[in-house]
Structure formats: structure tokens, C-alpha cells
Design goal:
The protein is an alpha+beta fold. Helix 8 crosses helix 16 (about 520-530) and helix 13 packs parallel to helix 14 (about 435-450). It has an 8-stranded mixed beta sheet. Strands 2-1-7-4-5 form a 5-stranded mixed beta sheet, sandwiched between helices. It has 4 domains: about 1-60, Ubiquitin-like (UB roll), CATH 3.10.20.30; about 65-240, Threonyl-tRNA Synthetase, Chain A, domain 2 (2-Layer Sandwich), CATH 3.30.980; about 250-530, Bira Bifunctional Protein, Domain 2 (BirA Bifunctional Protein, domain 2); about 545-635, Rossmann fold (3-Layer(aba) Sandwich). Bound molecules: zinc ion (2 copies). The site of one zinc ion has 5 residues, from helix 3.
Amino acid sequence: MLKVELKDGSIIEVESGKLVIEVAKELSPSLAKKCCVAKLNGKLVDLKAPIVEDSKLELVMFTDPEAFEVINHSCAHLMAQAVCRLYPGTRMGVGPAIEEGFYYDFSIPTAITNEDLPKIEAEMKKIVKENIAINHYMLSKADAKKKFGSDKFKCELIDAINDDMVGIYEQADYADVCRGPHVISTGIIKNFKLLSCAGAYWRGDSKNEVLTRIYGTCWATEEELKNFLAILEERKARDHRKLGKELGIFMFDELVGRGLPMWLPNGFIVRRKLQDYIMDKEYELGYKHVMTPCIGNVELYKTSGHWAHYKDDMFPKMDVDEESYVLRPMNCPHHMVMYRSTLHSYRELPLRIAEIAADFRFEASGALTGIERTRAFYQNDSHIFCTPSQIGDVFKEVTKLILDVYNDFGFKNYKFRLSLRDPNDVEKYFGNDELWERSESELRQVLNELGVDYYEAIGEAAFYGPKLDVQVRSAIGHDVTLSTIQLDYQLPERFELEYIDEKGQKARPVVIHRAILGSMDRFVAFLLEETKGIFPVWLAPVQVKLIPVNLEYHKEYTDKLFAMFKKAKIRAEVDYRDEKLGYKIREAQMKKIPYQLVIGDNEVNNNTVTYRKYGEQQQVTVSVEEFIEMISKAEKEMK
Ligand SMILES: [Zn+2]
Ligand SMILES: [Zn+2]
């Protein structure tokens, strides 16, 4: 008899060779039904695995997080079986579980599209009804290759396996080379949905054949599946690329170039409002705004070190006359040169040079994502030059600014990460130990003083100094790094920056790079996702839509209102099209315009406006002055 220790610490005796599922059934038949797989001595195994030595046994329930991967992997097999049945001659690539479901890559004789997915799903449901047992056995490599001889992909996978024996999972007419584990029969996999299909290169290599990848997802309960599908819908509705198009924020065109956004009139307003907002904040804190060209001499980037370390992310250089230029990936070097151009006294420090700077980075075309990841973007950048003893104060000031800005935008879900050096890694980090140690402890102290929730990442600092970055989570759980503060001991060396200290001696300043909104482009992408395109009044490209009921009788009054609004700097638009009133109102709703004003006889006769706020049903009539006052107030208060 073998001794088996259960999760609660109790020990039972079982005969050697007894299957896990039999043990589970003896413990409790109802428990066995809720079991997906098991952990035998810490390793996930099928329920049909035999117990052959004294073991620790932990049953994994369908509701346990570990079961998610198993049921999704089993569902991938189920889908593969269905595809093979529907499309004879299909060859199979790989079909793993992924974070939110699974996929399988196929080479299918007939081209299939998303429209074919319901048919495959229906076939899968049939196989579920058949409740086919899923069996596992081992074959020698040679036998496995015989079995899968007609499938060159599987043979390639078998060749790549290091062991002599190959694991096979089989369910009736379908078999796969697989490590498992899997559920015990097809009848168990019920709550699934196929999501999409796409092309994928065999083994991810663009020199190889393109396979059809079908994505799906599978959950333990129907309710969980329903919830997940609702999340997917919400993600689609909040996709910044979709919203950006619908709301006229930005556009792309292949003729202009991939990854190069063009800001449309509505988008320009949002961008300008954001720029004014952040530059005003910076101005109050003593920042000096500058403008520098978005290209620079290669020598500039050799001096900064970017040419040696960052070249792969830059566009190639352009040779003109005797010079070589590059599009700048970041604007730090320009600011260094600007600082160096005059003599500085310690009394001037900290000196804060700021710019909304156009930068260019060579991103792989596959990585480009709307305005979140582009090849041309604007950075809300600043370089603060300070003495080593001012590091703590500057860091505090910038951290406070970040908190202040997040408060203005109502961001609540964010994480501060303080990246420190690994003191044992002497090769990677630049500069002297004392400066590192002192500044790191100062940064920590500031965060503690401000009561900021943060975590430390040892060994994650840049080689030139410690940094803080903030990841903000959007309404659909998408984490985006918006703000960063980076200390830099190296650029001041490279550019030989100086200031005259209290004793009249030359000294080296420290540079602090910081971005608050980060890339302005990515920030707008984040805002679109976060707000679903329902901008607050102060940011809305169009704040008020004027809709006259009758184009003849109400035009004059509408014109008068429009002129008054313009004068009050209210961003208004009039809908003079010859369309039905209901249609115009619906369209203003679709464009998520904060206020809709329908102008009819009452308004004309009483010199009033009747407004409806976006998302509300109620109609409110007020005097024109009151309305203007209300919008101006919202603008001022960032409502
Ligand atoms: Zn598998
Ligand atoms: Zn910088």
C-alpha cells in the first residue's frame, strides 16, 4: 500500500497503480465531479494518472485558477478535432492555452474566415455531446512519426522533442502530440466560444508557411464565459482606434506613412487643451518652455551615447553637405546643449527646461498600435538641472505634480514603481556609489513622506541613474506607463555640464528627465479608452451642438446664439442640414457632444436655450447668459 498525503494534511492508503480519479471518487463522488486535474507531488497530472509511489495529492477544481489553462488547452484539442472532421486533409501546427483562452494553428485545405467559426463551434458541440474519453499514452519517437507521418508540422515538432518517448493524447478519431494535462473527456468542455481567425507564420518565422490561427476561449461556468464576452465587447467599444475614427480625432494613411498619425480638427483641440493644461501647470512651477528642432546632427547623438546604445530604435541617418542628420528619438541632447550655452550659478538651479517635443522612433510595423504606439509622437518632456543636494526636493516637486495631474483627471488606479540599481552589479551602473546610495534613499524617503503607494524594483534602474515610473490602469484593465522621473548622472558628464557652486568652484549638475502626460499621443489614446470618448466639457472638441427645429423660422436666433458662444470661447457647432430633427439629435449623441441645444419657438420667443446634457434625458431651459456661464465654469473647473 502507498501513502498519499492530501491537501488537508491527512494521509490515506491506496494500492499502487490506483488512478487519481478513483481516489477522488472514494473521497467524495460529488467532489470528483468538480475535479479538473490534480497535482501529484507538485506536478499537474490528468485525473487518469496512476499513483505509483508515496505521494502528495492535491485535487484541482474547475474553479481553481490552474484549471483555466487545462480546460483551454483541452478546448484547443476539441476545436482541432472539429476542424479535422470538417476539413479533411487539415494539418496541425501548435495549439496552446494563452492568457485569456487558447488558439490552434492549422493548415486547412479550404480558406476559412470568421464566418466559418459558428460551423466549427457547432461541430465542437457535437463532439462534446459524444462525450469521448480523452486518453494519454507514450510512443517512441519513431512510432509517433509513423502515426503523424502525413502531417509535416507534427513531424517537425516530434523531431524537436529531446526525449526518446513522446506523449500522445487521443480522443477517438483525433490524436495530438502533447504534454497535457487534459480533462478526462470531451463532455466536460462546455462553455466556450471561438473568437476570431488570423494568419500566423509556422513557428513565428516570416519565411515559413502562413497558417490559419483560430482563437477561442473556454471557461468553467457559463456565467464566467458570459462575463468575459461582455468584457471583450467593452474593450471593443473602448478601443481608441475605433473611437478616434468615430469622433474625428486622428487618422492614418499609408500614403503618408505607417505609424504617422495626423490629428484632425477635433483631435487638435483635445491636444491643444492638454498642452495648455500641462504647460500652465509647469509655468506655475517655474519651468521654462523652449522649442528645438526635431532632427539633430549624428555627432550630437554620439556625444549623448544614443548613437551607440539606441541606434536600432532610430531612423537611419541622412547625409547632407558635410553633415549627417538623424530624426531625434528623444530631445534630451538638445536641452543639454542649450544648458551648456551659458554659464550657470548654483542660484539659478534647479533650472527646468521643458518642451512638448516631437520625437521619432523606429517601431516595427507589427508593434504599431493606433496613436498608442507610433513612429512620430510628442513628448511632454522636461529636463531639470540641479545640484546633487537638490535631488530630493526636485523629485518631490515632480512626484507632487504627477499626483496633482492624476487628481485633475480623476485617475485612481495607478502604481508607482521605483527602479533601483542592483548594488552587486558593478558593471552595469554608471557613477559613484555614494551618489547612488544617497539619491536612492532620498527618493524612497520622498515617496514615504508623500504617502505614495509604491514598490521597489531592484536592478531595474537605467545604467545612468534610478527612476520612478507610473503605470496607470484604464477602465478595461489596460496598464499604460504615463509618467516617468529619471535621475541621470551620465549626460552631464558626456556634455561636460557645469555650474558655479557656493564656493565659486565649477561643479557638475545632475539631470532629471521627467514626463508627466508622457507621450501626448499615447495620453489621448489612454483618455479615449478611459472615457469611452465621453470627454469632459473642458476637453470636448465640440462642447455644444445647436439644432434649430425649423431652418427658416429659427435660423436667425440660432445664428445669434452661435456668435455669442464663439465670443465666449465656447466650442459650438450648428447643424443646418436638411435632416429630421430626431436624426440630428441622435447624431449629436453618437458624437458624444456634452450639450445639445434644440432651438424652437419657445427659445426664440423667450430668449432662452433648452439643453440636454449627454447621457441624461432631462431637458432644462435657462437664459442664454446662464448657459454661457455654466459652460465657462465647467471649462475653468476642468469639469
Ligand atoms: Zn495539446
Ligand atoms: Zn530626457
